[in-house]
Amino acid sequence: MKNSEKQGQTNAAKPKASQTKDIKNDAKINFVEPAPDAATELKDLFIDSLKDIYWAENALVGALPKMAGNASSAGLSGAILEHLSITQNQVSRLEQVFNLLGEKAEGKKCEAMAGLLKEGDSILLETAPGAVRDAGIIAASQKIEHYEIATYGTLVAFAKAIGENDAAKLLTQTLAEEKEADCILNDVALNLVNIVAAE
């Protein structure tokens, strides 16, 4: 057996020194100076992320009735209105998390959710009422759910890492609800809306 094999080395090509230098130089050019109030600890980032999703959930409470009102499918409209009630409970749950941390429950504008909601409004303008619009509403809604799933998954991981296990349990409940909402939307799309929209 060769020494390289004993050491677990592979024959993969290594980057040339000049390439490594270029990458490092590019990284320096793209380096972003942190804001004066930038997070320096994981708990700071956790709280900042909670403020982000708190704003997002409150914005969603305002947006869901419009989406439900523009849906032609009773199944879709019902699913959205059911999730409105769940979202209101999620807002309350986030307030519990803030309370556990000894922090005031306050939102910070979530640019991602603002963009997703704006895209949802655009879909309503760009589709005629009926199954095609319903398909667009589901697409917009699932993008929102996927963003929330990613966010709550990260928040659960952060909470566990900093020893905030009670907060992690509350956030895990919301994560499960977002995953279930995504499955419900998927079922409505595949078993009804997309079939009718394709006719």
Task: Give a short summary of the structure.
This protein is mainly α.
Beta-strand segment tally = 0
Average pLDDT rating? 91
Which class of secondary structure composition applies to the elements? Answer: mainly alpha
* Discrete helix count: 7
Which shape, going by the Cα principal axes? globular
- Residue ranges: pLDDT <50 for 5 or more in a row? none
Terminus-to-terminus distance = 64 Å
Proportion of strand residues: under 5%
> How large, in whole angstroms, is the Cα Rg?
22 Å
Biggest sheet record: none
Question: Helix amount, in percent?
Answer: over 70%
- Secondary-structure element sequence? HHHHHHH
Q: Strands, helices and their partners?
A:
Blueprint: H1 3-6, H2 17-29, H3 42-69, H4 74-101, H5 111-126, H6 131-161, H7 165-197
Helix pairs in contact: 3-4, 3-5, 3-6, 4-7, 5-6, 6-7
Structure, explained:
The protein is mainly α and 199 residues long. The protein is built from seven helices and no strands. The N and C termini lie far apart (64 Å). The chain has helices at 3-6, 17-29, 42-69, 74-101, 111-126, 131-161, 165-197. α5 packs antiparallel against α6 (131-161) and α6 (131-161) packs antiparallel against α7 (165-197).
Salient structural properties:
199 residues, mainly alpha, 7 helices
